[in-house]
Amino acid sequence: MINHDTGDGRRATLASAYSSNSRLERVLKAGYFAVTSELAPPDSANPEDVYARARVFDGYVDSMNATDGSGANCHMSSVAMCALLSRVGYDTVMQISCRDRNRIAIQGDVLGAAALGVNNILCLTGDGVQVGDHPEAKPVFDLDSMSLLDVIVGLRDKKTFVSGRKISDPPRVFLGAAENPFVPPQDFRPYRLAKKIAAGAQFIQTQYCFDLPQFETFMARSRDLGLLEKCFILPGVGPLASARAANWMRSHVPGVHIPDAVIKRLEGAQDQKEEGRQICIEMIQQLREIQGVSGVHVMAHRQESAVADIIKKSGVLDERRPWVPDSEQQRGEQQRGEQHKLAAGFGHE
Amino acid sequence: MYSIRRWVVRNARFFEVVYRTFEPVVIKLAPLWNKVGYPRVEKPVSKLEKFSKELLFDCKMCGQCILSSTGMSCPMNCPKSMRNGPCGGVLQNGHCEVLPEKRCVWVDAWEGSKKMKSGDAIHAVQLPIDHRLQGSSSWLRVARQATDAASQHKQEGRDD
């Protein structure tokens, strides 16, 4: 049961059951426990920065999310990161936020991204500009996450732009959306999930889960609504660096809910960083036991190098080793990165 | 006004009834709108609509009113203009991440919709908004659509 057909997704003949060439879609539909992670976008124009950040996950994740100006901060664009990574063959989840672009720009980017080899798209509304480093910027929000899903479904399945104008080759993408079961109005959240599925979401990645009972309630209600057969759910997890960091996160990062018990456990630990990782490992193992959980999405901000170890210790991959680029290709990309560095060096002189 | 807007949501059932009574009246008046001409009647009606809905709902005159699908809480008051539900950044006290001193319009919308008879309308997916309609009257649009649909229906009947 190792690797299945997922190592060669891009070249494989596609069954009509697949809506994209995505490796993530294949892993999920084959019934494996999938692991995705979040890539830290570089503040640079050097492609090697992207490859280096991706490499730390090699062999432990099925797909990587490239964030689109997360937290309303400026970084390299998600479409560019995904295009660079797909050159090597990595599977990526391109995040699209509605904050910075209108429907004309977004539809163009979706076509362009698909042409460049992007197979998965995560539709987000996006953080408000006020939380980021450019609070003076104009918030666009022409679409919201739900209408964005609808727009991309139109491109993919109806082969038309919002305007109704035809496109010849539709973007073959596996569509995802986010959900946060941990913030009010909690009893509306399963219905909102239903709405996202109706709008076209095929997989869901959630906000950080630190509160298992609350997540279980959400899943039970979603099950009652018959949603779990229609969508793959990947709860978000991540290691907390310390009790202080956890406290800061819950008071400063909108949407992050961390119960007091978790913070107490961190405070009581001798090595808080290690304890944070242990909590994350246990959370992954517990989540796996919940009916309808198809994988996890690991967001390890500034602890990306710990992800491989966390996944390994959690044992959720069993014997499976997710796709890794072959070394020759990788070396080629490295060399290209070096050349770029040289060129950049000359340019600055 | 914020406090009036909140009060309206608390009384969403009552305002649903008001709207239900009011809508057929606007539609019934369609022959009058037609006679005067929609472009001519647009200005005074949209002014009246703006005045009354601004007072009650903090209406932003998007021109595509979906109050009856959003628990009588205007979604255009959301700083992200979300028309399909709350974002993932709602604070634990039910307030907005962008305007922490205000309650999330979708927390209110959900509560309002639970009080309404047709509250289930909140589950329908709202499609992208048409920004050209900003500032125009939703009432007249509804009246016009209703009469257009009726005349089309008649036309189809004749064709058969």
Commentary on this structure:
The complex is a heterodimer of chains A (349) and B (160). Chain A is an alpha/beta fold and 349 residues long. Chain A has a single domain, classed as TIM Barrel, CATH 3.20.20. Chain A has twelve helices and eight strands. Chain A has helices at residues 23-29, 47-55, 78-88, 103-115, 145-158, 189-199, 212-224, 243-252, 260-267, 272-288, 307-314, 327-348; strands at residues 34-39, 63-66, 92-97, 120-124, 174-179, 203-208, 232-237, 295-298. The longest helix of chain A has 22 residues, at 327-348. Chain B is mostly helical and 160 residues long. Chain B has one domain. Chain B has six helices and no strands. In chain B, helix 2 packs across helix 6. The mean pLDDT of chain B is 92. The interface between A and B is medium-sized, with 38 and 31 residues.
What layout of secondary structure does this protein have?
The complex is a heterodimer of chains A (349) and B (160).
Chain A: H1 23-29, E1 34-39, H2 47-55, E2 63-66, H3 78-88, E3 92-97, H4 103-115, E4 120-124, H5 145-158, E5 174-179, H6 189-199, E6 203-208, H7 212-224, E7 232-237, H8 243-252, H9 260-267, H10 272-288, E8 295-298, H11 307-314, H12 327-348
Parallel strand pairs in A: 1-2, 1-8, 2-3, 3-4, 4-5, 5-6, 6-7, 7-8
Helix pairs in contact in A: 2-12, 4-5, 6-7, 8-9, 9-10, 10-11
Chain B: H1 2-10, H2 12-28, H3 30-36, H4 38-57, H5 105-115, H6 138-159
Helix pairs in contact in B: 2-6
Provide a compact summary of the structure.
Chain B: InterPro entries: DUF5981. Chain A is α/β, with parallel strands linked by helices and 349 residues long. Chain A has helices at 23-29, 47-55, 78-88, 103-115, 145-158, 189-199, 212-224, 243-252, 260-267, 272-288, 307-314, 327-348; strands at 34-39, 63-66, 92-97, 120-124, 174-179, 203-208, 232-237, 295-298.
